[in-house]
Amino acid sequence: MKLNLDSLDRRRFLRGAGVALALPVFGSAVNLSAGTASEALAATGQSGTNGDSPRKVKRLGCFYFPDGVPMPLPEDPAYQDWSWFPHGNGTDFTYTKCMEVFQPLRDHVTVLSGFSHPAVRQVHGHSNADQFLTAAATGSDGPYKNSISLDQVYANHIGDQTRFSSLVLSTDGGTGTPRGTHTISFSRTGRAIPAEHRPKRVFDMLFVKRDADAARRLALSKSALDELLADAKTLRRDLASDDRERLDEYLDSVRQAEQRVEKAKRWVNTPLPTVESGGLDLDVSPEDPQRYVQTMFELVYLAFRTDSTRVATYQIGRENAFGISDRLARAVGFNLAHALSHETKQPGGWERFSTYCGFLNREFYRFASRLHDTPEPAGEGTMLDNTLLLFGSASSAFHLSQNYPIILAGGKAMGFKHGQFVNHAGSSAVGGLFDGVPEPWMREPAKDDQPLTKVFVTMLQQLGLEAESFAGQTGGLSELV
């Protein structure tokens, strides 16, 4: 007897421990109802140090900004001051005005040039954020499939040691759309993990006591998950092979939800950490862009400081000029951020674009400095010594998906060497004004970049994983350690 999908409770949405599940839609010959597929919400368990004795911790933070960076050509008078990339190579380099904010942290920062993901080097820059941490061949159009992001690889390894496996943030919130993502975090099946964008919601999740009914709701969630898995196993027998694959992928999400429920049960009676919120404006929005970005970075700092999580991502803005994040340029007196990348041929255009990128650099520097100035609560050195930070974009010059502007900071206690400009682009880096078709992304590169996955592999290795490859690319980058 074939199972009627209508017999499964379509209203079985599980609320509690960050779980919301419904069955996906299949095309097989069973009596189907028009259901709504939903992904398990972001990988958010529940956190703290669980009463264990202090131990050495390793944290990872990844931060993304859209629209690339200013890259005037060497013959342009703007090149000396307003280029994003430093001048020089190795330890013999000079920051430009766009980057000089990092000078006090020079010995804790490495700038990378000449790195990108091979599968997407000919993709238009408007589609880039999706693959920044995954290296997947997401493409500019056609069928879309993503893969697990760097942060979630580490979260899967370390996330059971803290209340929250990872903290996923963005300015625009949610998941966005394929090739227009609002999140840079993707699950093991390549599903976008929704990002939180409301500072008060993030603070409450991390530090405000939950209601006393949490344990009962967790028990109900576990019971409902067990029922859903039993129903799904029966359903699987009546599905065609392609739908079985979809169901198996879906069941992986259910199993992840199961793991989050079990983890939440372990933490439900553990007191939340106490922090002072007096200096935070938790009701701030991107309409006050500087304060908003500072608040989002401060929430990541507090999550790390209290060991609520050891993995965080923040997508500062989405690509292609959509979303409230495009208004962040108002922090430095301009209107829309994306427009600045198009207007560099106007008088003062390079300086304006560089000033906006300098604002982003300054806020990241402020965050890294907070970590540097805070002694490590769980060990030796500073929090920055035990926290690895990746800051960058998947575009460089106008819509160009090559030569990503990348900063790697922190992690000295993990063996990282800093105070260098690892410049694999050299003099072949594309830049200059946008002068019509073909756009830079359409042109053949003068030479191939190094795979950015080399950086990812080294990051994972120094974070403690036995990683030899990432997204099918093998090998690390010896210059970093």
CATH class of the largest domain: Alpha Beta
- Structural class, by secondary structure, is alpha/beta
Average predicted local confidence, pLDDT:
83
Proportion of residues in extended strands: 5-15%
- Poorly predicted ranges (pLDDT <50, ≥5 residues)? 1-53
- The fold-level CATH name of the largest domain is Alkaline Phosphatase, subunit A
Number of domains: 2
Instruction: Give the distance, in angstroms, between the N- and C-terminal Cα atoms.
Output: 61 Å
Percent of residues in helical segments? 25-40%
Overall form: globular
Oligomer: single chain
Tally of separate helices:
9
* Largest sheet: spatial strand order: 6-9-1-10-11-4-12
**Series of secondary-structure elements, N-terminal to C-terminal:** EHEEEEHEEEHHHHEHHEEEEHEE
Pfam families: HXXSHH
Protein name: DUF1552 domain-containing protein
InterPro entries: DUF1552, TAT_signal
Coiled coil: 225-267
What does the secondary structure layout of this molecule look like, with pairings?
Layout: E1 59-64, H1 79-82, E2 87-89, E3 92-94, E4 109-113, E5 115-116, H2 150-158, E6 167-170, E7 176-177, E8 180-181, H3 199-207, H4 214-236, H5 241-267, H6 289-305, E9 311-315, H7 337-342, H8 349-372, E10 387-392, E11 406-410, E12 420-423, E13 450-451, H9 453-463, E14 469-470, E15 473-474
Parallel strand pairs: 1-9, 1-10, 4-12, 5-13, 6-9
Antiparallel strand pairs: 2-3, 4-11, 7-8, 10-11, 14-15
Helix pairs in contact: 3-6, 4-5, 6-8
Give a short summary of the structure:
The chain is an alpha/beta fold and 481 residues long. The chain has helices spanning 79-82, 150-158, 199-207, 214-236, 241-267, 289-305, 337-342, 349-372, 453-463, and strands at 59-64, 87-89, 92-94, 109-113, 115-116, 167-170, 176-177, 180-181, 311-315, 387-392, 406-410, 420-423, 450-451, 469-470, 473-474.
